[in-house]
Specification:
about 425 residues; TIM Barrel; 2 domains; 20 helices; binds zinc ion
Length: about 425
């Protein structure tokens, strides 16, 4: 009897279009079990790492020191938040990688697991071996602690990175930083580009994109949904200029400044044929609906947008947009981690409505290799389940399903980013 499409998908290589592998976290040699939880989406079940407009925060809870771990801290995840899928996913991955035989993490075994995590991470090659075990061939990482970092040099030869533009979008003044703590005035110093006048700033944006290749960067990333609403209106340059170096800029001027920046980056990306990744859904949830970016996408028909996370929870709206606007590609990243149930339904719809097979790609969206491993095991399983259901329904043939699986796992990403072997 045939085992269906699952074995085929288990063996496929992956080109991973989105991670947050930061050298200081991913290659840290002092990592324990509690770090794996805090520096993962399981950590988000406890503490959101971005403040809402009504909140403020001192430091990023994901990157703060965990100190000496206790069972009570571990239990916050594996007992109190045990029903949450981020936690389930990570526990499953740790179980598999550390040979727990399905027992999971409990009061009796956590110290021994913690010891093994520390022992393995002392070897700087360990995270790379785990990624290999996950079948990941190439990685595109969003190193938000240093958006100009050359990750091929700092992480491994199979890495590329993206230029995250949040700092430009909120940095009208040296005192203003994005939620990751970055400022374009610092980028200007690094790139040896002046940043005194508004025109200097426009030139800085252009220089930042024109030098992407020097840093092995392959795309621009707009994650402003974590800093503001994503209603990127038509640029009003006059209003944007009024915000420049103006400490008392009004909300209207600040919004116009961000709108202008995003529009300008989209124009440059279109001219240079550089992909533009964009976070949609959740985040500052009152303003992150995907239809908010429809105007931006319409204004830039020559820019290739890779829209992320199936815009959870508004996946159907996003898919309708991807049918209407043919400059949209879909990054499935994170959606299967948030909710496997939602993802399976949305993937069925995506297969049916997307205009062709070149549109979907995959990523891990994680900090440590253990979570990436777990995430790709999960993605393979869920994609196989959905394609098998489509096969069983007679929607398409095994050959069609296999071709689509290859496209989702690696071929589309290679073509889209131009990083094929
Ligand atoms: Zn991400």
């Amino acid at each position: 009897m045939s085992h269906g499409i699952r074995p085929f998908i288990s063996e496929l290589p992956v080109v991973d279009v989105h991670e947050h592998h930061l050298p200081e976290v991913f290659l840290n040699r002092d990592v324990g079990l509690l770090d794996l939880f805090q520096q993962s989406y399981a950590g988000w079940a406890k503490d959101r790492p971005y403040p809402l407009p009504s909140e403020s925060r001192e430091e990023d809870p994901m990157l703060s020191d965990t100190g000496e771990a206790t069972w009570e801290q571990i239990a916050q995840y594996v007992e109190r938040s045990a029903s949450n899928h981020f936690v389930r996913n990570l526990v499953r991955g740790i179980d598999e990688l550390y040979g727990l035989d399905g027992v999971g993490i409990n009061r009796d075994n956590w110290r021994e697991i913690d010891r093994q995590v520390r022992e393995r991470h002392a070897d700087p090659d360990y995270p790379h071996r785990v990624m290999k075990q996950a079948g990941v061939r190439q990685v595109i990482t969003d190193c938000y602690t240093d958006p100009l970092l050359d990750c091929k040099r700092e992480l491994a030869p199979n890495y590329h990175s993206v230029l995250r533009i949040n700092a430009y979008g909120v940095g009208n003044h040296p005192a203003r930083r994005c939620h990751n703590g970055n400022s374009p005035f610092e980028f200007a110093r690094k790139l040896d580009s002046p940043c005194d006048t508004f025109d200097d700033f426009c030139q800085l944006m252009e220089t930042s994109v024109r030098t992407l290749e020097d840093r092995n960067q392959v795309a621009i990333k707009n994650a402003l949904a974590y800093d503001r609403d994503i209603h990127f209106d038509e640029p009003d340059e006059k209003l944007a200029r009024e915000a420049w170096r103006n400490e008392n800029a009004t909300d209207e001027q600040l919004k116009a400044f961000g709108d202008f920046v995003v529009d300008r980056f989209c124009t440059i990306a279109g001219e240079l044929d550089i992909p533009m990744q964009m976070h949609l859904g959740t985040a500052i949830i009152r303003g992150s609906h995907p239809l908010n970016v429809a105007g931006l996408i319409e204004r830039h028909p020559n820019t290739r947008f890779l829209l992320m996370h199936l815009a959870y929870p508004w996946s159907t709206d996003l898919l309708a947009m991807a049918f209407v606007y043919r400059n949209i590609w879909i990054d499935l990243t994170w959606s299967f981690l948030l909710s496997p149930t939602h993802f399976k339904r949305a993937l069925h719809e995506a297969i049916e409505i997307l205009p062709d097979e070149t549109r979907m790609m995959l990523g891990g969206d994680n900090w440590h290799a253990e979570e990436s491993y777990a995430t790709f095991q999960l993605a393979r399983q869920l994609i196989a389940e959905v394609l098998q259901e489509k096969l069983d329904d007679g929607y398409f043939s095994l050959r069609d399903a296999e071709r689509l699986a290859q496209r989702i796992c690696f071929r589309n990403a290679e073509e889209f980013f131009g990083i094929g072997n």
